[in-house]
Amino acid sequence: MRTGILLDEIGVPFGDVVAQAKEAARLGYDAIWLAQRGGWDALTALVALSAAAPGLALGTSVIPTYPRHPISLAAQALTLQAATGAPVSLGVGLSHRPIIEDQYGYSFARPVRHLREYLQALYPLLHHGKADVHGETLTAAGTVEAPGAEPPSVIVGAMSPLSLKVSGAYSDGVVSTWAGPRSLAEYIVPTLTKAATEAGRAAPRVVTGQLISVTGNPDGPRTWVAEHYGMAANIPAYQAIFTRDRVDGPGGTVIAGDEEVVRARIRELEEAGATELILMPVGTPEEQARTRELFAS
Prior knowledge:
TIM Barrel, oxidoreductase activity, acting on paired donors, with incorporation or reduction of molecular oxygen
């Protein structure tokens, strides 16, 4: 299973993010990923990071759709690919109502329809340089001229049944966080694959982001994640995932233990249908270093 690493960018000086990218290249990771969480701009940053650590695939996990019109996002993503020459995974997602409505001031009404219309515009823009979508939630009628740029792969941060169906029909796959082997095998992979098959698309990518700690004290990182990401338990789509996987919120999703335990859990994810892993190390600095070393090629 191909393995990339999510770089830590929240409240981190950009030089430190560059150092993380260089370490990922040194350790032999396949890809580096950046989130879009109100700090550094992911697509802009990846141009500089690719120059500092060439040879790595690049990914975003994920860019909220509402604040970025699909014509603008397509131009940014194609520019990134052309500037770096690297394979690009353009991860996009709806985000959540409190962010979209309270921070950006957009309406979050009919989010699945918005996602469908967004992808109906974005995919043709990336592959054919034009879109003509006049929907209920957006209009995208225009072109992007980027000769020579290879179309990025589009993956969606999707969890709900309807968003998974839309992702299967109009994108190259999904990127999931919090989902464990049971949710992947019994829900995400079958729903996504069925939608892709019905739409005549290739087998979808299933990128799984996992909080992982190689540690002798599994309760430490699990407690930290529960304290810092506990609000995720209040989001309905995530609640459903936690219930399916029979875990008590975000802390229960952390893969923690010695090297043998961690390797076994990753095998379970692969057997459940995950095609790629995004490593998100957690724990003390020493535990995170140990985790990064475990997944070095």
